Amino acid sequence: MAKKLYRFVPERKKNVFLNNLIDAGGNIGKAASKSGITRQTHYNWLHEDAYYASVYNDKIKPMCVSVLEDEAQRRAMGYEEDVYYKGEKVGTVTKYSDKLMEVLLKANAPEKYRERVENKITSDEPASFGWDTGDAGMEGDEP
């Protein structure tokens, strides 16, 4: 059974590419290759077709990001990977990505997980700021 092709624009070739682009998580080269076009064709369409460009920017890009976020979530939460010995599958191991988990937490709860920097000035003296020109003048300056 063929995969359903979502219709974003009137032209079939452009729709094929846009659907493949979503599946590829926004990888233009991969989507172009799968669609039988060049990367440059996509850029030409963006330049020549205002409607295509608006669909790409307003609908396709967010959908590509969603695909990437789903994959990051899967990897952060753990995924099964087959283990082979001498060409035979002997089991599975669960792999996790601590870095992806950290990124997802910072993105979804920044008030709790953002990087924090605290600056404390500990002095009884008031702070003063000014320019210290010293004896060095600018070359060509008249005293």
* Spans of at least 5 consecutive residues with low confidence: none
How many angstroms does the end-to-end distance come to?
A: 87 Å
The tally of strands reads 2
Largest sheet report: 2 strands, antiparallel
Account of the 3D structure:
- With 143 residues, the protein is mostly helical.
- It has six helices and two strands.
- It has a two-stranded antiparallel sheet with strand order 1-2.
- Helix 1 packs across helix 2, helix 1 runs parallel beside helix 4 and helix 3 crosses helix 4.
- The longest helix has 28 residues.
- The N and C termini lie far apart (87 Å).
- The model has no long low-confidence stretch (mean pLDDT 87).
